[in-house]
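Progress note, project year one: complex with citrulline.
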Amino acid sequence: MFPSSALRSSLPGTHAFRSAIVRPPSANFSEGLTREDLGPPDFSLALAQHAQYCAALERCGLQLTRLPADARHPDATFVEDTAVLLPRCRVITRPGANSRLGETDAVRECLSTQGVPLETITTPGTVDGGDICEAGEHVFIGLSARTNAEGAAQLGTLLQAAGYTSSIVDIRGIDGILHLKSGLSWLGERRLLLIDALAGDPAFADYEPVLVESDEAYAANAVRVNDVVFVASGYRRTAARLRELGHALVELDMSEFRKMDGGLSCLSLRY
Ligand code: CIR
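Model obtained:
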């Protein structure tokens, strides 16, 4: 059964994750959507990186549900986009790319089997989970090429009914980020890791910004998993800054997922 009251995490202001859904890339992963120009991903390396990511989640104490790879949906490994899972509000999204709409079925079935009560984003709304950044009792909702105003409004209403506040962050004019969380991560309490282009947004006025330098922008997509923060490896200044601030880090090689416009957060649904 889904836990109704989450465990406390050792990071103040956060709740502990006990479970995650993951899905390995399919052999045709390179046929997915991407705006990056970094060449095709190496499938074997992607599988190995995915396995390391899963092992890191397990080391943090999370129990994994591993969905089978889905060749009908080459982007299905980016499972985060299919749902928004908060302790009091769990929503199956309606992804904004037509090729990804069918990805939600397996995730809905999996969560339903586990007894998780689910709401649903309905047409004409679209929401990608990558645009939704939980910050404790507040949720930032990115308006993007994938998450539209109707989807954002539907999610805002569901969140409000569950007692969360939310604010909209319009990223449609920001180059280089697909989703809000491509440039923003919540690190606990009022601390946010974010790119310069987002730093001036009034939604973040009451938060402590930790800025990622532009040549390390990819590192802004980090994930707090209980008492550690997962970051992409190879971004030395961001990692050093986070350590200086007292965060324990798990650094993971994301090179093959980056080629397909994906980051650390997209590879799991944590709850
Ligand atoms: C897409 O374009 O939809 C995928 N290739 C990448 C999705 C990444 N998801 C995420 O950042 N939450």
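The first strand starts at residue 19 and ends at 22.
The chain has six helices and 15 strands.
No further modelling is planned for this target in the current period.
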